[in-house]
Design a protein that fits this description.
Elements: H1 2-7, H2 38-49, H3 53-67
Helix pairs in contact: 2-3
């Protein structure tokens, strides 16, 4: 399933986003997606990669900063 596919991808290449207004994470399914729900995605990634949520957030935030050149 999706979990297995995600586990095969490097976390260092992932960013978290909310660009799917009608595809909320499982705990909020049926509600309009919003930025506050990103925590559920981070929690799921932490579970898949056996990391803390902080590690996932730190890594995906750094990737986003690099991708969008926000550190310059």
């Amino acid at each position: 399933g999706v979990d297995k596919t995600v586990a095969e991808l490097p976390l260092e290449k992932m960013v978290l986003e909310t660009d799917a207004p009608y595809l909320s994470p499982t705990p909020k399914r049926g509600k309009r997606n919003e930025p506050a729900f990103m925590k559920f995605t981070a929690e799921k990634l932490a579970e898949i990669f056996e990391l803390s949520v902080k590690e996932v957030v730190d890594q995906t935030s750094q990737t986003a900063k690099t991708l969008f050149k926000l550190d310059q």
